[in-house]
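chain below, 124 aa
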Amino acid sequence: MEKHKAEEEFFKKIIKETGREKASPDFYKNVMRAIEAKQTSKLVYKPLISQNVWIALVLAISLSVFGLFLMTTGFSMNWNFSFMNYISVPKINLSSTMIYAIGFISLFFLQIPFLQNFMRDQYK
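prediction:
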């Protein structure tokens, strides 16, 4: 308790010696200017979905609708894939667990560049 009293006396002595600080005469005006400057600054809003994404989305939907239209009308294109007869691809038998594991790992590695860009943008 005596330690606190000593500190209190010390601080009172220092405050009496130095005195109180006085604000400048135009302090109020400076504060009001700063507040007005903050209020007048306008926020520039960016859309969540950019124009390129909207264009890609419209193209994907229109191609899907067009494809569904062609499928329901019975329209068929006779494409000749005879060159595929010359290519021999070995057959690989994998269990369903292995296929899921390969899919999971490939999706995981696909996400890494996106996460790196996100983290780089967040912590600039």
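The chain has a mean pLDDT of 83. Residues 2-40 form one domain.
thats it, cya
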